[in-house]
From TrEMBL:
This is Single-stranded DNA-binding protein. InterPro entries: NA-bd_OB-fold, Primosome_PriB/ssb, ssDNA-bd. One of its GO terms (molecular function) is single-stranded DNA binding. GO terms for biological process: DNA replication. It comes from Marinobacter nauticus. Pfam families: SSB (PF00436). SUPFAM superfamilies: Nucleic acid-binding proteins.
Length: 150
């Protein structure tokens, strides 16, 4: 059977909903988890009013991009991330099966700081910098410690 081609890339731009949560793998690779809000609006056909809608996305940054995020980002900052959609499954301490679908930004992805709400120095915005590569040698998400649900 021939291998089918596929493509998994997610690009999101939004505001961070929590301060980055850094941790390290046993081999020292830094990982940061955060929640990213993206907004959408549409006009309700019946009322004619504009309706705002916010979606929340789980984002996991790995390697160098995680180190940058933990140093420079905070709740409210606007970022752009390019990564892959991954679903992880685990069993909780009480035996409950859990899963999470998240955007993983590893050595193949990028994260760009755009300024926005939490910008620390308006004269020198981080959005003027090129996208930060996620770093080399990042672990495979399947090797992560699945005992800690997000």
């Amino acid at each position: 059977m021939a291998k089918k081609s596929s493509f998994n890339q997610v690009i999101l731009m939004g505001n961070i909903g929590n301060d980055p949560e850094p941790r390290s793998t046993p081999n020292g690779t830094q990982i940061v988890n955060l929640r990213l809000a993206t907004d959408d609006s549409y006009k309700d056909r019946k009322s004619g009013q504009w309706v705002e809608h916010t979606d929340w996305h789980s984002v996991t940054l790995i390697g160098k991009v995680a180190e940058i995020a933990s140093r420079y980002l905070s709740k409210g900052d606007q970022i752009l991330v390019k990564g892959k959609l991954k679903t992880r499954k685990w069993e909780s301490e009480n035996g409950e099966k859990r899963s999470i679908t998240e955007v993983v930004v590893d050595f193949e992805g990028t994260m760009q700081m755009l300024g926005g709400k939490g910008q620390k120095n308006p004269q020198q915005g981080p959005g003027d910098q090129p996208p930060a590569p996620a770093g080399e040698g990042a672990p495979n998400p399947e090797d992560w410690d699945d005992d800690v649900p997000f």
